[in-house]
Design a protein that fits this description.
This protein is of the alpha+beta class. Helix content is 16%, strand content 35%. The radius of gyration is 17 Å and the shape is elongated.
Length: 217
């Protein structure tokens, strides 16, 4: 089995909501949407329908701004009914439902309040591809090709994020380095076509990119 090739941060035009039920305070959202074209700078990207079929969702965290050093606000372990984070995949993509401990965790309480007020209205997720067979490129030699993601090998985290408030067709200026990394991914694809190999942890880090887009609501 091939090792995971790339770790990537991705956001889509979805909705983040604060709710309440018998389990307590709930955050819901749809961080992954199929068949939605997004401009991330040097190329468009589309997550194809069915990309989450057989994706490894064994252990997925729920965080704020991808801060993996902090205690997660919820967690899905094998996505069972007792998990504080539930992941639901369907023909449109993935929904999440996170139960927050607002009584004992001040960060959970702060997040719930921020989402309820509309101060945080974005989501993003961290995923891996396993091989270059899991993606393809259209018009790769053009000025603006399209990258299609056919299969996501693993999702390890979903986040509420602060800065989604700009058009879907624009990349956030604060992510200039992320944009450079995205260009590097494209350049590798152009140079090697079907062999975007990452030979070291340093190269893996250089291949990271993320962007956040305005969410509905």
């Amino acid at each position: 089995m091939n090792e995971l090739l790339k770790v990537e941060y991705r956001a889509l035009n979805v909705e983040l909501k604060a709710e309440e039920d018998e389990r307590g305070k709930i955050i819901t959202g749809r961080p992954i949407v199929y068949d939605e074209r997004t401009n991330i700078g040097p190329f468009d990207e589309i997550i194809e329908r069915g990309a989450l079929d057989n994706t490894d969702l064994t252990d997925v965290l729920f965080s704020v701004n991808h801060d993996l050093k902090k205690i997660p606000l919820a967690r899905s372990r094998r996505n069972n009914a007792n998990s504080t984070l539930r992941l639901m995949t369907d023909s449109r993509g993935m929904d999440i439902r996170a139960v927050l401990d607002v009584e004992n965790n001040t960060e959970s309480r702060a997040l719930y309040s921020a989402v309820e007020r509309g101060d945080i209205n974005g989501m993003s997720f961290i995923f891996f591809l396993r091989s270059t067979d899991d993606e393809s490129w259209d018009n790769i030699d053009s000025d603006h090709p399209t990258r299609r993601i056919h299969k996501i090998a693993r999702v390890i985290e979903v986040s509420a994020v602060n800065f989604p408030a700009y058009p879907q067709t624009e990349i956030n200026a604060r992510d200039a380095q992320a944009l450079e990394n995205a260009r590097a991914v494209l350049e590798k694809a152009k140079n090697a076509r079907a062999d975007i190999s990452l030979d070291s942890d340093l190269e893996l880090a250089k291949a990271k990119f993320f962007f956040n887009v305005k969410l509905g609501g």
